[in-house]
Amino acid sequence: MSTDTSRVTPAASSDPLLLDNQLCFALYSTSLMMTKVYKPLLQAMGLTYPQYLTMLVLWERDGLTVGEISNRLLTDPGSLTPLLKRLESEGLLSRTRSKEDERVVLVNLTEAGRQLKAKAQSVPGCIVEATGSDVEDLQQMQEQLLGLRKQLQAKM
Length: 156
Hints:
CATH superfamily of the largest domain: Winged helix-like DNA-binding domain superfamily/Winged helix DNA-binding domain
Structural class: mainly alpha
Number of helices: 7
Helix content: 55-70%
Strand order of the largest sheet: 1-3-2
Number of domains: 2
Oligomer: single chain
């Protein structure tokens, strides 16, 4: 798949159905490019992008339930289970059933999972560098995106 965008020009029309006039496409294509930038950084740690996001959640707060991780990542718990199983098989976390409610699965980092955090310390700086922007501009963009997400969630 080519990532050459030299032929893409800003929409010269106010046609609301032009691809280049779509906010959703700007967000989607930027997300794809961001994931491509992350890929080699995460491969060096043995993680996929969704696994990295899951590990970020657990590095913030260990000992969460699958449901809590799912809520934090805005994803379905069922789609998270195979990912967690894979991370468990790689020795980065453990999953145990709650003694109070066997339907609840608790997720805890292993020592290897905690140690992986040190390897991940360089990732944010690499991403900032790849964007060609300064931290303040990126923080402002992040705030705008979070505001957009909040607005959209309120409509659901």
